[in-house]
Amino acid sequence: MATAPELLKPLPPVQIRPMTQVDLAEVFAIERSSYAFPWSEGIFRDCLRVGYVCRVLVLEGRIAGYGVMSMGAGEMHVLNLCIAEAQRRHGLGRHMLDHLLERGAAAGVSDAFLEVRPSNAVALRLYRSFGFQQIGTRRGYYQAVGGREDACVLKLSLRAHRASDT
Q1: Which of 35, 41, 115, 141 is catalytic?
Q2: Active site residue 142
Q3: 127 a catalytic residue
Q4: CA separation for the pair 67, 116 (Å, rounded)
């Protein structure tokens, strides 16, 4: 568990830029090392092909994380957000999520949604710190060792979130 001083370290210089086909091998390597049941490289390729907002977070010239979201009908859906294990606990996930929410807000999105495993306490803390609230459960949503795991469905009103930032 990170201590309070670790969480207060300044954010290292990072760049968030659009993901490209060239990035897929590095993105997939992070995905595969982070999850027991990762997305395939083809899923990332499809997300790029259909025009989802796909971003990579670059730290010291290397991809350290990524985020994927879809937008439509005044909503955004965070589909995947991951930081490489060696780079976690430095605020990079917060930085990426903030970037995605800003993109959605700039596009006029009013609500953000996502699913997260109830067992992923670190991600739940991050999302709740932004004001995401659980609005439902998807039973058996995720593949898991020994069966299926539910998903917590979370929602954030971007209007309320922006108002709390001012």
Answers
A1: 115
A2: no
A3: yes
A4: 14
Alpha-carbon span 71 to 109, nearest angstrom: 8
2-16, 36-50, 57-71, 125-139: lowest mean pLDDT where?
2-16
pTM of the model: 0.87
The DSSP secondary-structure symbol of 36 reads S
Q: Which of 56, 163, 150, 34 is nearest to 110 (CA)?
A: 163
Task: Judge whether 133 and 154 are in contact, CB under 8 Å.
Answer: yes
Q: Which CATH number fits domain 11-165: 3.30.428.10, 3.40.630.30, 3.30.70.270, 3.40.50.720?
A: 3.40.630.30
The domain limits of the chain are: 11-165
| pLDDT range class, residue 15, cuts 50, 70, 90 | very high
From 31, 52, 66, 127, active-site residue: 127
Judge contact between 90 and 65, C-beta under 8 A: no
* Continuous H helices in the chain: 4-7, 24-34, 41-49, 92-106, 121-129, 158-165
Mean pLDDT, rounded, for 71-79: 95
Q: pLDDT by residue (tens digit) across 26-59?
A: 999 999 999 989 999 999 999 999 999 999 999 9
